Amino acid sequence: MSKNNLTRRGVLKSGAGIGAGVALPTIFTASSAGAFTNEPTGNTVTLGFNVPQSGPYADEGADELRAYELAVEHLNGGGDGGMLNTFSSKVLDGTGILGKKVEYVTGDTQTKSDAARASAQSMIQKDGAIMITGGSSSGVAVAVQGLCQEAGVIFMAGLTHSNDTTGKDKKANGFRHFFNAYMSAAALAPVLKNLYGDDRKAYHLTADYTWGWTQQESIAAATEAMGWETVNNVLTPLAQTDFSSYIAPVLDSGADVLVLNHYGGNMVNSLTNAVQFGLRNKQVNGKNFEIVVPLFSRLMARGAGENIKGIVGSTNWHWSLQDEGSKAFVKSFGTKYGFPPSQAAHTCYVQTLLYADAVTRAKSFNPCDVVAALEGFEFDGMGNGPTLYRAEDHQCFKDVLVVKGKENPTSEFDLLEVVEVTPAAQVTYPADHPMFAGGNLGTCNPGA
Amino acid sequence: MFGLEKKDLNLLIIVALLTMLAPFILNPFPTDSALAQFNAGYPDLMQRFVIYGIFAIGFNILFGLTGYLSFGHAAFLGVGSYSAVWMFKLLSMNVLPALVLSVIIAGAFSWLIGFISLRRTGIYFSILTLAFAQMSFALAYSVLTPITNGETGLQITLDDPRILGMSATADGSIPVTNIFGLEMRAATDLVIGPWSFTFSVGYYLCALVMLVAFYLSIRIFRSPFGMMLRAIKSNQTRMNYTGLNPKPYTLAAFVISGMYAGLAGGLLACMDPLAGAERMQWTASGEVVLMTILGGAGTLIGPVLGAGMIKYFENIFSKINEATLHSWFDVLPDPMENGLVWVLEHFVGAGWHLTLGVIFMLVVTFLPGGLVEGGQRIGRLFNRTKAAKDDESAATKPAE
Amino acid sequence: MDAILLQIFNGLDKGSAYALIALGLTLIFGTLGVVNFAHGALFMIGAFCSVTLQRLLTLSHETLDPTKLDFLGNPSKIKTPYIVEWFGADAGNTIIDWSVPLAILFAIPIMLAIGYVMERGLIKHFYKRPHADQILVTFGLAIVLQELVKHYYGANPIQTPAPDALSGVMQILPGVVYPAWRVVYFCFSLAIIGGVFAFLQFTTFGMVVRAGMADRETVGLLGIDIDRRFTLMFGIAASVAGLAGVMYGPINAPNYHMGMDFLVLSFVVVVVGGMGSLPGAVLAGFLLGILESFASMREIITLIPGINQIIIYLVAIVILLVRPRGLMGRKGVME
């Protein structure tokens, strides 16, 4: 073994090099100028669109991205302006945000909290994004929201339905326009009562993770309050693809309603399996057996095909709404891409405009000023009727749609029909509601 | 020096220089240029490079030396992350106790799994480790949510006790991970002309840890213990006949690589205090296998290169979108621009997985020894043209 | 009692999917000695063969109907499949309705071709390489195939419904109904498994292949071109996976990552069955399917929370610890 004996000089040199390496971060103190993280100094401002581009929600992610691109176009004065024309706040004039042209970067969340945070970090650290938005699952939304709070940028949540996002995991820098599981339940319960009566026995199949549990809890509470009985609740693994062994026991459980607390691929498969087992044509307790899917999305409904017909659920928004805001949005989206937008696209588009509007009203990009401008903000003309961004938990309160799979669709997009628009008042809950307890907004963090 | 041979010392010095100068090396393009998209010199990604490097170095001690292919190493990474975050929640935001705990817990966990799995060899061993890891993932995602916070991932909150620290800072924020007061996210920018370089405390901590890990791995490779591990790979039966029991050696290698994984997991949590269950999924275990093979299994530096390559694609290629492509090819005539963009958009943005798959196939088909072999071939070419000494510069010589 | 019976059916049904995929995987492994991580992708491609056929059959002639408006207020398009125009409404719609069974005929040549190209073009070069290299190259291939499918068909699941006549439920025992298509799937997989075994057992070709599996070199020395036969076996294995995918479509709508979902499971099945054993793979497939079904019953979950999440892996660990080479593994294969 020949040992390498370095000369004294060599040791000194390499030692100094390593020493300098260690000391480097302390030599330069503090960081560059700026009152808050990524303060835009040039004539552009960068937004970060963090959506799932791979994994099971890639199609939703693609639709979200289309909506973001459209929003940026409208903010910069391109296209027909979309909802800028119907939005109740009129400060946005198509010259970007505070006169700065809007640019954007995109990233892939892969629907994994880790990857989503890595992607958001790169937007903040490398691209200088001042606001992060997007996502198609609650786990990711909560994870990225936490990151944005730490880094000192605003997070405008995309599609996230769990109570926790604005409940126990709420953050001062995070805002959610989308509705949540509690609202779904509150909107659905009266409709279910009208349609199926108040004497029903419900069997729940629930995705075995946080979102599934909060939704099951909400739906069970709301339906039990109107007289239904919850016969059973069975938790199903997220990775499950064949639900036959969960559906079969429903047949002779004495239940006459099946509630599928599933989303995405889980929902498509469990619903398909339930229909295969003939549940739709079954009579139990002298009543027609019914299936309920509390959270619907049109993209997913398309995946479920024929099976969706007649199934009741709730949704945040649907393109067939006839108010001016929805019509304007559907028109510009449809003209640009050739098909109507999904609810994910809608919420992402609206969130971008709301952020731009808040900055403009606050006359500052500082996250704390933006938070102040968004808290308690009331607006209209964005497709959901009069809406309030509540200050206590940064949740939007607006009308919720109860929808049903259409029996005779006229096109491949025309899959859902609106059964009822449940007014915002009916789905509003106190900020200290037990299902949302345990969280703390903290204070807004401008970073830097 | 350091008890290393000249060749290994040179390698260590090169790696040390590369990691210390990484903020410069990874940011070769001016910030405002179109090519800045390819810059990887921002703290989060640099941290990931070295952390996954540690993970792969550790994995290579098991796989590269003994040939035992574990398909469940992500479980140890995940366990390390969870331990570290729990330390942040209960004790303090100092990273040292967190790292120590994550290494210990991952070591214990890997001892348990290794003890059982090493009763079998070959693919039976692989499937046993896979089964344990998948069980850990499934339970962490669902039943163990009180400990792991399931889908969302374990995060620190404002009302954690943190008995040696504070639950919240004076202005009502969650405190930041630090090492004796030096915050992990503290960073400073150095602006030279159009270039901008970021130096962050977190990165340099990770880099130092990786250098130590790398040094230890060299020592293990060159030690009698490492020799014994290679003997296990080449012929276990013969080893048995010479009166040696291979099991304690393999178990030791398994636990060491589990501790490396735990260390990597702990560091991930130190840089970004969140531990998600997906870190334990089989895809994550598969990723480290791919990193090691892609770089060159059994070589010292290969796994680090493989880790860097995969993370680079995941974080840089996935962020190139159609608009970026159009801006690059603006100067071309429209039909050409659109054609080029149409071809390229298959491979970037949402198509980054495709590029990765193609690269896996190309590398393994044409460079049987992984990226390291590519480096060697270039090196040989270089040497031939320069007609210089041939063996000494082969810093990346495989172990076998 | 009915509940238990139903779970046995469910288990057999899941088991038949596992068994079919594992069978092909073992065939490739046994004949070529290659660890094929792209096998799940072959299953997925099979399913997308039937999606493609469905798309081809419903290729439509578009006419504008000015009386109806689409969502933008333009005249809406009425689509009439060419096949309906050519064969008339009845025959045309029946053909479209039966597209999944028809896809079997469509998929066999495609899968054979894909198998052939894969083996000759890529796998061939990896026979002498370490298993690690085989894993990397086939995993890379799996990613590429999956991304291509995603690019052309999107990430959402696409329904490939069973023919109307088979989409309802079926009375299998007095008082017990079960989805008709699942019964079809079970019978279909039994037929395929039986066919593969008969082929290997009773034909000369099969005999040579079995001999080659046992001792490749000796068979080669006897002057038999074993490589050519193994190429064909790869094609057969690919077709088995593909057909499993075609027929699986009506049970669960195909999506681009269904292969990856099955990949890990099918490896567990093969190893639990024992490396190099075809009957072992089939047996393990059915066994794990049935155990998985029972573990998802409410009574069992209440007893042991979370057992449905881990049952397959738990069983795999127990079996591998009790029986070192799985259920029916041969000595010395990949140990």
Automatic annotation (TrEMBL), chain A:
Pfam families per record: Peripla_BP_6 (PF13458)
Superkingdom, taxonomy of origin: Bacteria
InterPro entries, sorted: BCAA_transport (IPR051010), Leu-bd (IPR028081), Peripla_BP_I (IPR028082), TAT_signal (IPR006311)
Signal sequence interval, chain numbering: 1-35
GO biological processes: amino acid transport
Key words of the record: Amino-acid transport, Signal, Transport
Domain Leucine-binding protein positions: 44-406
Entry-linked SUPFAM superfamilies: Periplasmic binding protein-like I
Family statement: Belongs to the leucine-binding protein family.
Protein known as: Substrate-binding protein
Organism expressing this protein natively: Sagittula salina
From TrEMBL, chain B:
Stretches that traverse the bilayer: 9-29, 49-69, 98-116, 123-144, 201-221, 288-310, 350-372
Membrane topology recorded in Swiss-Prot or TrEMBL: Multi-pass membrane protein
Any Pfam family matching the protein: BPD_transp_2
GO function term, MF aspect, one: branched-chain amino acid transmembrane transporter activity
GO CC field: plasma membrane
Keywords: Cell membrane, Membrane, Transmembrane, Transmembrane helix
InterPro entries: ABC_transp_permease (IPR001851), LivM-like (IPR043428)
Keyword Lyase found: no
Main location: membrane
Lineage: superkingdom: Bacteria
Compartments where located: Cell membrane
Protein name: Branched-chain amino acid ABC transporter permease
Source organism: Sagittula salina
From TrEMBL, chain C:
Main subcellular localisation: membrane
Topology of the protein relative to the lipid bilayer: Multi-pass membrane protein
TM regions (residue ranges): 15-35, 42-61, 95-114, 183-209, 230-251, 263-288, 300-322
KW Transmembrane (keyword) present: yes
BP GO terms, sorted: amino acid transport
Pfam family, one: BPD_transp_2
GO MF assignments: transmembrane transporter activity
Keywords: Amino-acid transport, Cell membrane, Membrane, Transmembrane, Transmembrane helix, Transport
Localization annotation: Cell membrane
GO cellular component: plasma membrane
Record-stated family: Belongs to the binding-protein-dependent transport system permease family. LivHM subfamily.
UniProt protein name: Branched-chain amino acid ABC transporter permease
